[in-house]
Structure formats: structure tokens, C-alpha cells
Amino acid sequence: MEPAVLGGKLASSLVAPLVRKLFVTGGPGAGLVDRPVRLDRLVSFRGERRTLGEKEVRGLAGKLVAGSLDSPGEPPFPRDETEAVADALAARLLALGDLDMDDVQAVRLGHGELAARLRRQAAGSADGLSTDARHFLDSATEWACLHVLEFFTRRSTFVARTLVAQTRGQAELIAKVDELIARVPRPDARDTAFERRYLPYVAEQHNRITIYGLDLRDSPDRWPLEVAYLSLEATTEEERTGAFPGEYADPERTVRLPAETALTAHDRVLLRGDAGSGKTTLVQWLAVTAARDQDRIPYVLPLRTLTRAGALPSPAAFLTAVGCPLTPPEGWAERVLGAGRGLVLVDGLDEIPAADRHRTRDWLLALIRAFPGNRWLLTSRPTAVRPDWLAAEGFRELSLTPMREPDVATFVRRWHAAAEAPEFETRLLDSLRTKRDLARLATNPLMCGLICALHRERRGYLPTGRKELYDAALTMLLARRDRERGMEAVQLSEEAQLELLQRLAYALVLSGRTEMAVETAESIVERALPSVASAAGQGDAATVLRALVLRSGLLRRPGEDSLDFVHRTFQDYLGARYAVEEGHLDVIAGRAGDTQWEDVIRMAVAHARPGERAVLLRRLLAEDTPRLTLLALACLEHATALDPAVRAEVEARAGALIPPGSKEDAKTLAEAGPLVLELLPGPEGLTDAEAHGVTVTASLLAGQGPSGALAVLRRFRGHPDLDVRRQLVGTWDRFGAREYATEVLDHLDRPELILTCTTGAQRAEITGMRPWHRLEFRGTHQVADIIASVADPEAVETLRLTGNPLLTDVGQLSAFRSLRRLELEHCPAARGFEALTALPLTNLVIFRVADPTGLRELDSLRRLTLAQALPGTRLTDSLPVSALLNFLALGPKTTETTGLRGLSHWSTLQDLSLTLNTPLTAEDWAEVGSLPLLTGLYLNARLFANRLGPLPVMPGITHLGLAAVQGNEDVSALRDRLPGLRSVLVQTAPGTRFDPAPYAALFPDAEVTVDER
């Protein structure tokens, strides 16, 4: 037997009598008189019944230590440390009286944790002892704690007190549950019974969509939502910059996600989409899915219906406002929303007048504030409201993207399967691939449906222009033959239907609405009947209107007393046609400032005669605003015949906007549509900023004109500017993986570029390209597939893995033997960092991995960035103590248990970045102030909200960085604390506009730079 073990055994035999002397004895019962019975009342050297003093305790400890040394064999520690060990053991035993717990709680802790508490309570007691003496002291402490707990469990009051403690705990738990139930009342039986009827109703009500053009012989006019729904993508523009100084920035990129997942990450979403892009269908899909899953109670609220009644409804009136025939129990809607169970889908912000939108926003925000915790979706056309209209209220803005080639192909296949017309599918797909004009039209579900229907009806003939497509679609829809459907109705010619429909459309356009009362529609038809001969003899206005709704396929009755067009596109097209026929060009031009009229103006140019087009375009140019100039430019697409001088003037005025000089200019320019692609210059003769603006514009238009966009971007593939190259490398997702890799990516200069791969198709293309030294794999990829996709793993020097739950063993990345920089972000299963010691790794970034242990072994690191909870009580417990770090960035949660204790160990640090969510203490700042080479300090603005702490004077800091600054932070304390500053970098919070003058005045001897995000 080892001597130390034998000594420990003997010590254990001495502990039992020692413990009995340390505690006073008590009588039987539960010990309820002095409750709770704290340890300081039980120990015999504290309290009124004291029998031992500190001197006696030290004597007992001395006897135990002496007995251990006298045991057979080698002593457990050097004899000259006997007195020091006895004093240390006595200090730990005396700490029993300082523990804030009772005997039941002590037993619940266990002897190991109780010993740890005593060690912490008597911190410093083992200072100066040898390793063997420390080992004996810890062993003796644990043996003592084991016997302490054994003593407690044998006390006559322990069992009774344990039962009492359990009873009290159960009572407290029951009280808390009762309080929770009181705060979130359970729906009563009537609510539950009603929801059993309401949810199936919603699922059935919204489980059908119209198939445009399938109202033909032997064809259904609606199909199931499950078959029809195409999982389109929603996007949000996100520019990620380096999280810490010295980190390179990502290119501006589009974050794509399935549209139906829009509400999974955010409770509030403003979803934008062009006409026919599928916004309403998405609302239906979300409602049906929620109703079937029964995880949320959906409310589908079309704004055009709600605003027609005047005051917007309260929750109690939601179902009545949309014509739901079911009557809920009183207060049901408020109980649902109050419990946070609602899914509120507000559709069609663009379909109400601009004057009503602010009222609608106030109504919506009042609901959100009154009923937090629910999910809210608002849909709109892109230009109906400004980009940040609801950003301050926590709404995330997403945009439905145009359909890409795979989406179009999927839609065509599903359409023909539902229509039972497989013989036309292949021919149409071939046409869409080869006819550029036709492919440009197939960008949303509405237009794809029309193209499919026309292709089938005309057996292969398809128009090539937007106006011609609408004309053909209207002819098909309006020429439906009732007798072939077995229906008897009044007979209205196609011309008569068009005349009446365009008057109704123009009335809606003028009113700024998309829905009108049936009574209003009847009065419009009544006034038109005398001039429409073929309709005048068919009956009164009500009869003719009913026939029009029945036969045209363009009108519908969303409610008993309301009327609207099946889609806004037809309303704008027909309204523009009537305005041109009636000579209302002044009216059209006068409404050009209203974004709701943009499509009307474009269609008016398409319908107008050449002279009228010239007048209208000159009116747009006369306003001399960028948007209307670009609108005039967009109208040229529809101006088949036009005075050359007018066309030249429009293009010249647009030339002042082209090339765009900034990203913002590029985004504005892209709103004019794919015609812009033909006018984009370069790269010859452009500044670097202009070249970047052109590539941003082309990237944004990739969905609408992929061929033209690719042609523009291809011209810039040899451009040397870093921003241009980053834009090109960040646009891969918007094109086919192979085509873009071949035409653009493989020609780019690699320095400072990181290639991001998100799909298996992209991963497959990496193998065939020239080596990339910096790679990112975003999303779920098998590590083996990542390694296999890189033809020369030794060429990879930087690797970033983001959002990958399949990465478990970090050691697999050792295949990249030249790796110098590794970033792991949101890889929740990653562990095993010690396996990277063989790599020449100098830069490591870790955000949210499973287990950061093993970092201590990475001695080669020089830069380390963490946003990850660290184990231990000091930074030296988990970070590489042998690494000569010169840069360290500590993000949120990193120092929750460690503080900055141990930071001074890395005396080589030159730059320190702190983005912490815990306040800094004087001890933390002392660690920072002890760094002899530290010259750069970078702080997140959140630290200035009572978290900065007692910042000392640090004259060695010459560079200061402030991140996420909103402008209202008080940073005046930094002036006197950092007297040696020579430069100050202020990075603003996203969207913040910043005045640098106050900072320049605050730091007169430093160069102040502002980086607006």
C-alpha cells in the first residue's frame, strides 16, 4: 500500500472521534424550534452551547496530523510541515461555522462539494505547502467531510428534519405552480371545444389556391395548397464585419432562408414581395400549417378587408371582420393572445391607401404591446413603405426573392401534374431555357402560372413581351365558354367584359385601394351600361356584375359585400389601359410620386401611342428626382415605338445615376429593373467605388436577369479592387454553382478573399477550381465531404465553419496541415481542440462550441477570439498558458465565471478586445493594467451602461476602439484615464448616423475615425 494511502486511512480512523467533538448533540424531534438549524448552531466551537474553542480545534487537528505521520511506512508529507498542515486543517474545520447552510443542505451537497466549500471558505490556508502536503490536506478534509455527513445522518433530528424539508419544498413548488397557473390561466372547456372547430376550419378555408388559366374545359380552377405551394426563398441583406479589430470583413451577402421559416427565428417579420411573388400564398401556408400542428392559433387578416369597415378591429372582432362563420366564446381571442399563443398574419399593407398605413401601424403596434409573446407577420410590396418602417419596433425585414431556374422548373412540373397535361411540360421547359424574354417574365408564381396556362391553351405558342402576355392571358380568361362547363348565364363579349373591368380597375386605382364595396361596383357598371351595347340588354347592373364575376375569372368576392381583382397586377394593367383610352395622362403623371402607381405608369407607357409616351416620359423627367428618372428608364422596356430624342433624353438623365457611386446608389438603381443591366458600364474608366457599385447592382438584379447580370459581373472578374472582388465572391448563391464558378470565381485573384460554400453543388465545384487559401463552409456539411472537396488541403491556410452541427471531433481538421487560422461559429457539438497541436495554428476564433477544453495545449497561437463560456475560475484554467498571445478578444459570456483573473499571465499581449456582458471590477482592471506591452484597447459600447467599472489610468494605451456605438454613450471618463491616445476608431451600431465632432473634441490629441455600419 502506498504510504500516502496508508496515512490517509489512518487519518480517517482518527477523524470520527474528532467530528463527534466538533458538533454539539441535540434531542429527538425535527428541530423545528430554531429553524432552519444552521451549521453555526451545530458546531461546538460557535454559539451559546460552545464546548470547544479555536485552540481546542487546532489541538484536535494537530493530533490527527501527528497520528498520520506516525503511521507505518513513508510519511505522507515532510515532517517539517507538520505545524503548517495542522494549522491549515484547523482553518478548514473552523470554516464549518461560517457556512450558510443547515445539516440537510450539507448532506444534499455531498462530501466532495462540502470539502470544496471549506477550501474556498478558508482560501489561502494551503499557501506555501508542498505538493504532498496539499494532497494530504485535501484528503484529510474530504475524509473529515465524509464523517461530518455521516454524523449528521445519525443525529436523531435528521430524518425528521429531512421529511420536514421535503414537505416545505413541495409546498413551495405547489405555490409557485399555482402562481404560474394564475398568471397564465388554462383555457376553459369552451375555449378548447371552440378551437377544435376553429383550427380545422382555418386549415380547410386556406388549403386551396387558384390555378390561373386552369378554368378551362375539364380542368379544375383550384388545387390543394400542399401540391401548389412552392417553398420560395426570403432574403435579408446582411453585411458582417470583423467582430474584433484585426479581423477581416465579410462581403455584403444575402442571407437566404425558406420563406415559411420566416417566423421561426423572429417573432416579428415584415415580408416584402413584388406583385404575384407568393405573399398571400405564404400567408395561407403558414395558417394551414399552424392550424394542423396546433402549436399556434392563426388569424388571417387581409388589410383590404379590414380597412373597408373603417376602424380596425380589436382581437374580439378578428373573426367577424374576415367573415368567419364561427362564434368564439366571449374573451377567447384575448385569452389566446394574452397567453402568447397567437399567429397574426396581416396581409397586404400595399393594398390600402398610404394615408391608412400609419393608422394600421399604430393599430398593429398597440396589439403587439398589449399582447407580447405572439408571432406577427406583415406583408407588403417592396416600395409601399420605407425600408426601416418597422425596424425600431423589432421587426425583421425579409424579401421574397424572384424564382430561380430550379424554382421555375419545379413549378412547371407541379403545374402540369395538377393539370394532368404532361405532354406540354417538356416543351415549355425547353422554351423557358432558350427564350430569354420569356424566362425574364417567369419570376413569380403568378406569371409562371399564366405562362403554363397560355402554353397549354395555345399548344406551344407564347407571347414574348409583358404587355403581350397580359393581353393573351386576358383573352384566354375572358373567353371562357360557359356552355362547355354546363352553365347558363348572360352572354358578355370579351370587349364588353374588358370595358367594364377596366372601369372598375381605374376606380380602384384612383382610390388607392384594391377592394371596393359591391354597391360601388354596381353603380360604376350602371353608369357604363348605356355605352356598352352588348351588355346593355343583359339585365340590370347587379345582374351584369354577377355575370362579370362569374365569367371573367379576374374578379372575386372575398366577402359578401366586397369585390376585388384576383391579383393587383390585373388591376394596374386594366386601370392603365382605361386611363390611356380616356386621355388621362395628366392624372397618371400627377400620381407618379405615389409608389402604388409605378406599375400603372409602366403599363400606361405600354398602352399609349408614341406621342403620348413621349409626353408621359417627359413629365417624369420634369420632376427631376432619381426615382422618377429611373422609373422613366424602366418604362423604356415597354415603349416599342418612341421619339428617339425622348429615348436619348431619358438615357442621358439616367446616365447621371449610372454608374452608381455607392452601395446605396446601386440598390436604388437596381429598382429600375433588369433593363439597367444593358446600361451598366465598365470596368474601363470607372473608379474603384464606381466599379463596386456596378457589381452590387448586377448582383441585385441576378434573379430578374441572370444572363445579363452574369455578363456584367464576368467583365469585372479581373478587377484588382478588394471590395469588387469581395462582391463577386459573395454573389455565388445567386447563380448556378457550376456556371458562376467557371465564368467568374476561378478567374479571381485570391489574396484576402474567402470563398463561402453553402450547398453540396458548390462544394463539388471547389475541387475543379484553382486552390483557394481561405474557405468557409456554412451550414450542415460532413467533415469528410469538406476535406474531400479540397483537391489540395495543404493549400488551405484559413478555414471557417459556420452553423455546422455535424462537426464533433475538431481533430479531423488536422488534414489541413498548413492551417494558420481557424474559425468555428455555432458548431454546437465541436470538441477536442488538443488534437490541433500539430498544426501551425496562429489564429483561432471560437463562437459557441460544445467544449473549449483542450485550448491550453495550443501553444502556437498568437491571436485568440472567444465568445464562449469558459470553465474554471481563472483564464489560465482554460486558455493556452504557454502561448505568446499578442491579441485576445473576449466576447459575451466568456468571463462569467473567470472574470479577467489570470489575464496578466500573457505579458506579450499588445491588443485586447472586450465585448463582455458582465461588469468589470477593480480586480479585472488591475489585470489589464499589468500588461506591459498593451497599446490597443477595444471596448463594446454595452460596457458603458454601468459595466465599465473603475477604469484606472493607463498611459500606455495609444489606440482605442469603440464598437456598436449609438451616439448617446458617455465616454468622457476615457479622456483622463487614457492620456496617451493617438487614434480612436468609432464603429457605429447598424443604421446609426454619427457626428464625430464630440469625439474629436473629447480626444483632441488623437485621430478620430468613424466607421458607419
Automatic annotation (TrEMBL):
The keyword Nucleotide-binding is annotated on this UniProt entry: yes
Highest taxon listed in the record's lineage: Bacteria
Pfam families: NACHT, NNH1
Secretion signal, residue range per the UniProt entry: none
UniProt keyword annotations, A-Z: ATP-binding, Nucleotide-binding
Sequence ranges assigned to domain NACHT in this UniProt record: 267-581
Keyword flag Transport: no
Protein name per its UniProtKB record: NACHT domain-containing protein
Species name: Streptomyces tendae
